[in-house]
Amino acid sequence: MSSFFENDSPSNLAEYTVSELSGSIKRTVETAFDQVRVRGEISGYRGPHSSGHAYFSLKDDRSRIDAVIWKGTFSKLRFRPEEGMEVIATGKVTTFPGSSKYQIVIETLEPAGAGALMALLEERKRKLSAEGLFDADRKRRLPFMPKVIGVVTSPTGAVIRDILHRISDRFPVHVIVWPVKVQGEGSGEEVANAIRGFNGFERNGQIPRPDVLIVARGGGSLEDLWSFNDEIVVRAAAASEIPLISAVGHETDWTLIDYAADMRAPTPTGAAEMAVPVKAELEAQVANLSARLQGSVNRHMDQRRQSVRALLRALPSLDQLLALPRRRFDEAATGLGRGLELNTLNKRRAYERAAAHLRPEVLAKPILEKRQRLADLAARAERTVERSVSGYRGRVSAADASLRNIPARLTAQTTRARDRLASLARHADTAIRHQLARAKAEIVAQDRVLQSLSYKNVLKRGYAVVRDGDDNPLSQAEAISPGMALSLEFADGRVSAVAGAGGGPPPARKKPGKAATPVAPPKQGSLF
Length: 528
Prior knowledge:
Blueprint: H1 2-6, H2 18-32, E1 36-43, E2 54-59, E3 64-69, H3 71-74, E4 86-96, E5 101-111, H4 114-130, E6 148-153, H5 158-170, E7 174-179, H6 187-199, E8 212-217, H7 231-239, E9 244-248, H8 256-260, E10 263-264, H9 268-275, H10 279-314, H11 318-356, H12 360-404, H13 406-453, H14 455-459, E11 465-467, E12 485-490, E13 493-498
Parallel strand pairs: 3-5, 6-7, 6-8, 8-9, 9-10
Antiparallel strand pairs: 1-2, 1-4, 2-3, 4-5, 11-12, 12-13
C-alpha cells in the first residue's frame, strides 16, 4: 500500500499559493463586477467608524452582502444611510483576501424609490411629533412690523433676490443674510447652525438681532429638499426663540421644518409678504384713520356747539334774572321810612310803660339793701383788721424777745473766734520760722556754689585780672597796646599800671650758690 501511494502519477494542474489564489479571485471578481447596482436593505449600520469609513450589509429576503463606504465617498453622499432603509447602491464588488470574503465598495447611494423616502419621512415625522415639536401651542405670532429680518438661504440662488425685492417693494427694512448650502452633504448642519447663530446674537450687539427668521429654498425633488427633513434642522427650528417662517420649495412641497416653524409660506416670496406689511397700505390706512378721526372730532365739536346753543336758549335773560331782586329792593326801600317811624313809636311806648312802674318807694328798697350790705362789709373789715393787728403784735413781741438774747450769743461767738485767732497766730509764727530756716539753708547752699564758681577764689591762688581804662577785662595780649592804662585786680585789691613797649618771657630765677649768667634784656618791659 505504501508503495502504491509513493508511485502515484503527478497531476497536470497548476499549483498556486494561497495568496496567489486569493489575488486571482480578487482580480477576477473585480473584472467581472466592475460597476454594479445592487438593491437591498441596510443592515447592521452603526454610523461611520472612527476612521471615517462606514461598514454595514445589504440584504434581501434570501441573501446578504457586506458593504463599505470609504471616508471620501461618505462625505459626498446626498443623504445619510439609516438602519432598515431600502437603497440602491452603485459600486464595484471586490474580495477581502484576509478572510476569504467578498464585499461591495459603494460609490453612490440613493433611496430605492420615493416610497422608501416617504416611509422614512413618515417615521421621522411620527417620532418628532410624539416629542411635541409640532404642537400648535408652541408656535408664536410673527411681529407686525419687524425692524430686522434674518434670512437663511443660498446666497447665489434666485430665492434671496426674490425675498429682497419683495421686502423692498412692501416695506424696506434691514435684512441680514446667513449664507448656507441648501442641498447636498452638510447642508442640514449649516442650516441648523445658522438658526442657532441668529438666536445667539445679542439684542444690543454690534450686529442687530433679527425680529423674525426666514428659512428659504426653491423648489425641487424630494431628494433635493431632504436636508430640510433632517432631525437637526427640525430641532433647531423648534428651539428657535425668534419667530421663524419656513419657505422651502413650492406650495405643494412639504418638509418637516414646515411643521416645526411658527409659520409656513408657500413660496419664498410669500414668506417676505408674511414678514412685513405693505407700507403703502399702512400709509393709506393711517391717512384713512386720520381723516376719520378728524371727521369725528369735527362732528363732536358741532354736537357740543349745538348743545351749548340749546343751553343758552334755555337760560333766562339778565333782566329776567334781576327783575325779582329789583322789585324786592324797591319794596324794601318804600317801607323803610314807615318802618323807622313805627320802630320809634314802639320804643317810646315801651319806655313809657317802664316809666309808669317807677316810684320812689321802689327805688328806696334797693338802696336800703345796698346800705345794709355795705355796713356788714365794713363790720367784717374791722374784725379782719383787728385780727391782723393782733397777729403782727405777737410776732413783734417774739422778735423783741429774741433780740434780747443776741448779746449773749455774740459774746460767746466772739470768744470762740478770739481763741481760734490766737491758735492760728501761734501756728503762723512756727510756720514762718520753719520757712525762713529752709530759705536760709537754700541761700547758704547757693552761696557755696557761687563762691566755688567765683573768679576771686582763683585770684587767691596768685592770679590777677587785667582791665583796661573802661574797667573791661582783657583776655588776650594782642588787645594791649604800649602806653595803655591798665588796672590789675588781685585778691587783696587793685593797682594801676601802664603797658610798656616790647615783651618776652619772664626772667629766670637765680639758683643759690652759682654765679648769675647774664641774660639779654626782655623785649617787653615789666608792667610794674
